[in-house]
Design a protein that fits this description.
Radius of gyration: 24 Å
CATH superfamily of one domain: ANL, C-terminal domain
Largest sheet: 8 strands, mixed
Distance between the termini: 53 Å
Number of strands: 24
Strand order of the largest sheet: 2-1-10-9-11-12-13-14
Strand content: 15-25%
Number of helices: 17
CATH class of one domain: Alpha Beta
Structural class: alpha/beta
Length: 551
Amino acid sequence: MSGILSAPQESLRKVGDLIKAVGVLRERGILNPARPDHAVRGIRLVNDYGVFAGGIMRSALEYGDSPAIKDENGELTYVELDKLSNALVRGLREQGVKPGDVIAALARDHRGLVLSLAAAGKLGARLVLMNTGFAKPQFADVAKREQVSAVLLDSEFMGLLDAIPHDIPRILTWVDAKDNVDPATLTIEGLIEGKSTEPVEKPAKPGGLIILTSGTTGTPKGAPRDKVSVFVSAQFIDRVPFPKQKTVVMAAPIFHGTGLSQFGIAVALGNRIVFQQRKFDPEATLRNVAENRATVLVVVPTMLQRIVDLGPEVHRKYDTSALRVIFAAGSSISPDLSKRTDEVFGPVLYNLYGSTECAVATVATPEDQRLSPGTVGKAPVGCRVRLYDDAGQQIHEPGKIGRIFVSSGLSFNGYTDGRHKEIIDGLLSSGDVGHFDENGLWYVDGRDDDMIVSGGENVYPLEVENLLADRADVFDAAVVGVEDRDFGKRLRAFVVPGPDATKDPEEIKSYVKANLARYKVPREVIFLDELPRNATGKLLRNKLVEMDVSE
C-alpha cells in the first residue's frame, strides 16, 4: 500500500481536519462560538501581521489590561505589548529597517524578545531566531546565509558582533550593567521613546519567521515559517489541556520551537507568562511555579531532568499543587524520566514529539505514559504519522522498526539554503526511526543516522541509553557508535553517575548484557561529570564520538 489518497479523498480529509480543529479551538476557548466576529477578526490579524504580532494584537483586543508577560523588570499587559511594539516599528523604520528585510534576534526570554517578535511582524520584516549558545563562527555563518540586515540582541552577546559587517545596525534588547555598555549604544527602549503607540498600517505581506535547527553537527539550517494558519494551533492543544487566563512559567527558550509554539498558545489563551531570570536554574524554576501558582510549566527534557534530580528535600520546599500541565518537547523523554516525573508531580506530563522541520507529530498524555513509559503517544488533530522501510514501502505491522514520516500544517517547505528532507506520499521525513504498538502508541527508537551495524547486527543506541538512564545510580547516559576494526562499529557508553554509584565499567556492561542482546553491550563505559549539550539541551553526539578517551 502506498498510502496515497486521491485528490477528492485528500480534500475531504483536509475538510474533516479543519472541522475537528475548530472544535478543539472552541473547547479550549481560543474561539468563542458566541462571538464569531472575534474569531473573524483574530484570523484576519494573524493573516495580515503573522502569527505572533497578530496574536498579540488579537489578545490586546480580547484581554485588554490583563497581565501578559512578567520578567525581571516587572509585568506588561497585552495592551502595553501591542502599543510598545507599534512604537518599536516606527523606531526600526528610522534605522532603515524595511518590509522584507531580515532581522536577527539573539536574545534570552524577556520583554525585549517579545517586542522584537511583534514589531517584526507588524513591520513585515523576517525574523531569524538565533541560538543563544552560538559561537562566533556559527553566528557569522547564519547571518551571512540569511542576509541579515539588522541585529536585535542582548548586551551579553555583543562579543559576537565583530563577526558581521560593521554597517549592519545593532540594537540592544536587554542591557546588563556588568557588560559595561556604552551609553550611546542603541536600545529598543531608546527607539520606542517618544514614538507614537498608535496602530501601524499592515505590511504588504507578513515577514515570517526563520527557526533554526539544533545544529548539533554543524551550522544550523534555517526552517522558514512564512505563513501559519490559526487553525494549526489545535495540534498543540488537542491532547494537552492548556488553560485560559491562568499562569504559565516559560522555562524553555523562545528561540527554540518548544518555547516559541507554547508562547504563541499561551498568548492566544490570554495567559500570564512568567519568564525565567534569563538563565535556567532548576530550583528557581520550582520557586517560580510555586510563587506564581502556575498551572503550566514549559520545558525541554534536560530541564525537566534537572528539576526531577533536585530530590525530595528540595521538592518539598515548594508548593506546586496548582500545576496541571508540564509541557516538554525538543527531544525524547526516557521511560525513567517519565516515571520519576509522575512520582514527583503526579499525572501532568505531556510530551510532544516533533522537529523543527515537521513541527508536531505526536503527543503523549500522562495516561499514555502510565500505560507505556517512553511512548511519544498519538498524532493530534491535523497530523499524520506513518512508518516506511528503506524501500519506501509503508509498514503496517506493530513492533516493526521503520523510518518515521510526518505531515502537519506546520511542516516546512524546505530549508533557506535550498535543501529539503525526503518526502514520501506527501509526508516529510522526521529523521528518526521508530515503531508503533497494538494500542496505536508511537515510539522513537533513535535517529536514522545514529544506527550502527556491529558484527552484522543493526543496533540503535537509544535503547541502551534508556536502559542505563533507568538505573537509580545514573543521572544521565549517552551511547554512540565508534569505529571498530573487527566489527565495523561498536558501542561506547558515557555515564553521568549519581552520588552512590560504584563507577564500575564491568558492572555496567554486565547490567546491559543481563537485559539486552549480547551485541548491544557497550565495549567501553566512560564516566563523565556531565554530557555535552547545546543551549536547548540537545545532546552533541559528535563531540562524544570525537572525544579522546585513551587516558
